[in-house]
Amino acid sequence: MKTVKDFTAEEKLRLLCGVGSWYTEDFGGKLPRIRMSDGPVGLRTTQPNAHGGQDTIPAIAYPCVQVLANTWDNACARKAGECLAEDCIERDVDLLLAPGVNIKRSPYCGRNFEYFSEDPLLAGTLAREYIAGLQGKGIGACLKHFLANNLEYDRFHQSSEIDERTLREIYYKPFEIACEAKPVSIMCSYNRVNGVYASENKKGFRVLRDEFGFDGAIISDWDAVRDRTAAARAGLDLEMPFCQKSYEKFVADYRAGKITEEEIDQCAERMLALVNRLQDMKKKRKIAMTVEERREAGKHIAAEGAVLLKNNGVLPLKKGAKISLCGSCVRYGNRDFAAGGGSSQVNWLDPVFDLPAQLGKRTGGKVLFEAAFRFDNIDSYRQNTVAAVRNAALSDVNVVCVCTGTGVEKEGSDRATLRLPVVQERIIAETSAQNPNTVVVIFAGAPVDTSAWENRVAAILYAGFTGMGGDEVVAKLLTGELNPCGKLSETFQTENALPDFHFVSGVTRYREGLDVGYRYYSSNRLPVLYPFGFGLSYSSFEYSALQLKTKGHSLEASYEIENTSARDGKEISQIYVRPCAPFVYRPDRELKGYSKNGVAAGKKVRVTVELDVSAFAYWSTATDGLQADDGLYEIAVGASSEDLRLRAFLELKDGKLSIADR
Fold first, then answer.
1. CA distance linking residue 314 with residue 298, whole number of Å
2. What confidence tier does 552 reach under pLDDT thresholds 50, 70, 90?
3. Residues in contact with 290: Cβ distance below 8 Å, sequence separation at least 6, in sequence order
4. Fewer C-beta neighbours within 10 Å, C or N terminus of the chain?
5. Environment class of residue 434 by beta-carbon count within 10 Å: exposed (0-12), middle (13-18) or buried (19+)?
């Protein structure tokens, strides 16, 4: 096993700069090299083509991270990591550049489909399980993007200006939780944080290593390093990709005494540790699932993460029903409308996506399909649009499939609007006017403002970016072969009711502080379209019998969920905490626990969720640490952040919890 003593100073400098776009330096075989790949939802590896360029090799396309988050299912997150690990093993990839845990501060962020949630607990917990699944099979994870990259606009320069308490409670928190899985690496972001480039964020890197227990290497996002010497002195270990100009200046700075060999050794030691750790992890690498089994796992995640937003009883579709179906995104393999763009875009291994065929196979009735529109262009399809309206009038149920896709949701730019393109909203209006039994299926990776047409339709299914096999999954959900059980991992709100995100002249001021997402709406008593944690089912559930048990510094909350319908289903229950008389500002409610449970028809299950005293704490800027103040706290259990069914109170005194008398 090599140590820094086995390398010259210039070799160590070279070790801290990548080779090409995807490798680390191996010094001609002196060290094992590390191969990296994009791929939070599928591998993006390349191979040379006959024209001297590079082609992206087809790979399994899994549901986007937002869909994974909508499952609220730790097992699904772990399985996603395991599947991607096996894909990496087959492609000889050592390090996957995933997952991303950036908080969804703004629904306009073009890259939100790659991130988990607006809530740090949910984002961090699912990322931790994803990393555990990935690294448990011998593939390294690269947790990203550290820190506060919450918009794509001007991401290479803009400064995210955030107070310390908000950083600690919202933006650091998912990284802190994910670090429990011991990721081998973390990637810095492009932006500045309080005026300092993320690649030079010495204070943040110190928090990762000294407080969160992170013991891996810190890697730059591609071309995120502005000054290699300053970044190395701050603690950034590897610059990617290789940049000759940056490397030459790095060497010159060393020779000029601007960085010491001791500082270089600290980075080199972490890089050697990464190489050795990944080599050791290779012992775990084993293919346990076939490609087909991995595809099926992706379809399971897509089904668990689909969210039924509205249903007046038209769903599930009845056998033999005559169905009108329109939307260019659900046939002919046009996958650009059913996925996000950028470094996570996958070249689908299976190009087939045919919802009309899947629906027809399951209903046994006639399916009348017309594309009706392209993404935002109706002119060349006007004749087909007329046919779609006619089909809707002559059918039992009208299904309209709408989408965003790679042109709207992508790395490098933000969404201009949360509304669908005008042509898509108009086709909903025109067909629903002919058939009140209209169902809208949304293929997107972030919230959509449904306010212009929500009242015109009978049902809305948010499918998300489903990945391969999404046509089969959606057909099974619409026909009732599967029971929807996903819930929203972020708030859906009308565009004109969003908060001001305060971007001015290269600076984004996070003036809302802790009030991100549902915290903002609940604290200000503002209505939303669909709240955080919301999702319907073909089953119905009732909550009862909340019991609290305290054990010194911890709390055990248990309650019953009864399935009052004639159909088996799954329910995601959530626990929110509220201090009744806080000494500092606290949001009205904060998610502190959740559980996803299957409940048989007509049966009850008792759910138990454990919380420790940190669930009642906040970051005190006065003491530079977590602090849980004495006082009365409300524990609320509900089906969403706005549907709280059960409440109880407890006292915190001298760090110990006790049940409050009423």
1. 27
2. confident
3. none
4. C
5. middle
Assign 335 to helix, strand or coil: helix
C-beta atoms surrounding 602 within 10 Å: 12
Q: Secondary structure of the chain: what % helix, strand, coil (to 5)?
A: 30, 25, 45
Decide if 629 contacts 583 (C-beta within 8 A).
yes
Secondary structure (DSSP) of 165-189: HHIIIIISHHHHHHGGG--SEEEE-
221 is catalytic: yes
Q: Are the beta carbons of 253 and 259 closer than 8 angstroms?
A: yes
Which residues, at least 6 apart from 104, have a Cβ–Cβ distance to it below 8 Å? Answer: 112, 115, 117, 118, 150, 446, 490, 517
Task: Evaluate whether 639 touches 544 at the Cβ level (below 8 Å).
Answer: no
What letters, b where the CB count within 10 A reaches 16 and e where it falls short, cover 260-279? Answer: eeebbbebbebbbbbbebbe
Instruction: Give residue-wise pLDDT tens across range 372-412.
Output: 887 776 645 566 788 999 999 999 999 999 999 999 999 99
Question: How many Å apart are CA 558 and CA 301, to the nearest integer?
Answer: 27
Q: What is the chain's Cα-based Rg?
A: 25
Structure tokens at 335: 């996958």
Closest listed residue to residue 398, CA positions, set 362, 419, 368, 357: 368
**What's the rounded Cα separation, in Å, for the pair 182 and 215?**
7
The CA-CA-CA angle for residues 595, 600, 604, to 5°, reads: 65
The CA–CA distances, whole Å, from 531 to 332, 522, 638 equal 34, 9, 12
**Distance (Å, whole) CA 603 – CA 595:** 17
Q: How far apart are CA 409 and CA 446, in angstroms?
A: 8
State how far the Cα of 176 lies from the Cα of 143, in Å rounded to an integer: 11
What token pair was written down for 328? 């260019």
Query: Residues 60-95: pLDDT tens digits?
Result: 999 999 999 999 999 999 999 999 999 999 999 999
Cα 338–339–342 angle (5° rounding)?
155
Nearest to 77 by CA among 298, 345, 394, 358: 298
Catalytic residue among 119, 221, 237, 449: 221
Task: Of 187, 161, 164, give the one whose Cα is nearest residue 175.
Answer: 187
